[in-house]
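Reading is simple: each integer encodes one residue's backbone shape. An example follows:

___
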Amino acid sequence: MKKYSVGVDLGGTKILIALVDRNTGEVICHIKKKTKKQKGSENIIKKLVEGIEELFAESKVSLNDISSIGVGAAGQIDRVNGIIIGAPNLDCFDLNIKQVLIKHFNLPVFVGNDVEIAALGEQKFGAGKGCSDFVCIFVGTGVGSCIVKNDRIIYGATGTAGEIGHIIVDLNGRQCACGAHGCLEAYASRSAIETRIEGALKKGRKSVIQNYLEPGKSITSSMIQKSIEQEDELVLQCVTEASEYLSGGIASVINFINPQLIILGGGLIEAVDYFYQKTIKKARAKSLPVPASKIEFKKAALGDYSGVIGAAFLEERVL
């Protein structure tokens, strides 16, 4: 067996590319780039190719030692053909990543959903190790999830199972990036919190988060955390609201799927412990008593590396 694989986590904010040791799951070397989705699919492909080339140059590993390239992307995926069918948070549709990367690197390429690869990483080396029945939920630019049952990922009839971010929490609610109205993602993601904070600031509300803002740049999870540490009223209000919605979505998952464990990860969960603690406390309170008494919660153990480690092992999960 070849020693290394390349794992790529293609998210709405950043692209993380890593060389992963297939025996240990160790990240040997990594490259991080901003996605800049507004520049289109061609820019995303350009950044991917450049990033992988930089990774090879920096690591000095021979292509002969690379088993495969695995890519996880936020959105709906055709895993067989390696196509991103639809990824609203990437502004990317019908993009054949597999074809492009095979042409550039002449290596086997496997493509999955971004939370699917995070779940794989956590299952093999992180918070899900030793657990055969869990749901992985990541909260960042969007809200995504993956269902693992009897040690296997549940893909669903069309390969899109686990889209918790697009369960409807308000029939006549806010418009989501997917085009629908009232999706959980439009209420509980970092992007949703950012939109609420920005809207309040435009109406004249004051907040310490204004001290951290830079023109043309997004509100980050780190800025949110710093503002909470200073007990900022506006930020606390917006984060608490998002937690209320997310906990309701998680309670629905607990009642419907009845998993043994829920793993929570993503930038907002990692950076803002207030959000994590509020969410799990409320989720347990909103669930039916019996599953609520048994459900276990854990933070993703691999941090930023959950996705790239999982992506490196996608070839083991070919449909």
Notes: The first strand starts at residue 4 and ends at 10. Residues 131-300 form a domain with the Nucleotidyltransferase; domain 5 fold (CATH 3.30.420.40). The chain has two domains: 4-122+305-317, 131-300.
